[in-house]
Amino acid sequence: MTRTEYPWLLPSAMADPLDPELPGDRAGGRGRSRPRRTVRDWIVDTVGFVLAAFIGLLSVEASEQYGNSDVITFADQLVGAAACCALWLRRRWPVGLALILSVTQTIAPSTGGALLVALFGVAVHRPFKQVALVTSAALASGVVQVFVRPDPTVHPVLGVVIAVLLVLLVTGWGMLVRARRQLVVALRERARRAEAEAELRAQQAQRAAREAIAREMHDVLAHRLTLLSVHAGALEFRPDAPTAEIARAAGVIRDSAHEALQDLREIIGVLRAPGDQGEGDRPQPTLATLDALISESRQAGMTVALDNTVGDPATVPAATGRTVYRIAQEGLTNARKHAPGTEVTVTVRGRPGEGLTVGVHNPAPTGPVPHVPGSGQGLIGLTERATLAGGRMDHGAAPDGGFALHAWLPWPS
């Protein structure tokens, strides 16, 4: 017999995820070493040794009563003692030890207890194929032992039944313990995976919330900050402007900065935990506040024409009206940045059941356009917002060379 023919007899092939003593690499990776036994391992091995020794002593005592010679009885005692001592190697050589004990049991009944303990260890720590092999060997040795070393007080058929039942009972008990340990390992792995998935979902939700807040901050603050940029630029390039015009521009800058701070405070308030004390939030913009937005833009020097055919803006759902407000706000902001001095037309039409449309159009600028930072992220965010609301939004160059923005939003009847 060579090692390559029976690799399952090698210690290195005995690794099992349920075995408390898995082999570890030695320094240099050229060998295997096993960790030291824990207190629990010592207790289990000691109990197994005592149990095997007790069963062996009962077998030896029965052998003496059956009239066996002193030589046979002494040989049984030696073999039984050796088998019990060999149990301390069962963690390293479980399958090989169980097979050897199966052979010795046929001629030495005192090794029966050691065989049952070794069989239990194999059933707990080894896969089904190895368990089936060892169990078959134990069953065969039990049957053979009944006829080689018979018990005069027990009928051979009953002896075979008892041997088979003992082997199957120990094997079933060990496989039950193994199944329970596998279940515990699986539940722990599932719990670990669930925790990792929950943490990942929390991170994704946090990232989505941050992106939503970032888009909201852009929608709210871009309009205010553009006003600040335009009027500050006017004061910089026209230091000789009339005092009244300078005062008006300074007032617009002050008001816009105040409004920007208020809007920023409003958005940051979303991040507060429930129960945190803070200032009361201002009402969110709706379609009813669109006129105030147009008036604010006109005060900033823009020429804005509003065509609103919605008779009662209060009947428009709040979320839809807020989206319309943000679209018009972004359109006015872009026109002020990229087409200053042109007339901007804002159109709002619709009725319940047909939806609500909003359009912002500005012609091409006639003079030089000042450079104002911008990357188009506002239009991307508005397109996404309109899509999430169940509508759509298109934007791009108009036939007259200007820029047009058009959106449709649902308005339930």
UniProtKB/TrEMBL annotation:
Catalysed reaction, written as an equation: ATP + protein L-histidine = ADP + protein N-phospho-L-histidine
InterPro entries from the UniProt entry: HATPase_C_sf (IPR036890), Sensor_HK_TwoCompSys (IPR050482), Sig_transdc_His_kin_sub3_dim/P (IPR011712)
Coiled coil stretches, renumbered: 186-215
Chain segments annotated as transmembrane: 42-60, 97-124, 131-148, 154-176
EC numbers for this chain: 2.7.13.3
Domain (Signal transduction histidine kinase subgroup 3 dimerisation and phosphoacceptor) ranges: 210-275
Superkingdom to which the source organism belongs: Bacteria
Keyword Kinase attributed: yes
Signal sequence interval, chain numbering: none
Pfam families assigned to the protein according to its UniProt record, in alphabetical order: HisKA_3 (PF07730)
GO cellular component, one term: membrane
GO molecular function, one term: phosphorelay sensor kinase activity
Keywords attached to this entry: ATP-binding, Coiled coil, Kinase, Membrane, Nucleotide-binding, Phosphoprotein, Transferase, Transmembrane, Transmembrane helix, Two-component regulatory system
Keyword check for Translocase: no
Protein name (Swiss-Prot/TrEMBL): histidine kinase
Organism: Streptomyces purpureus
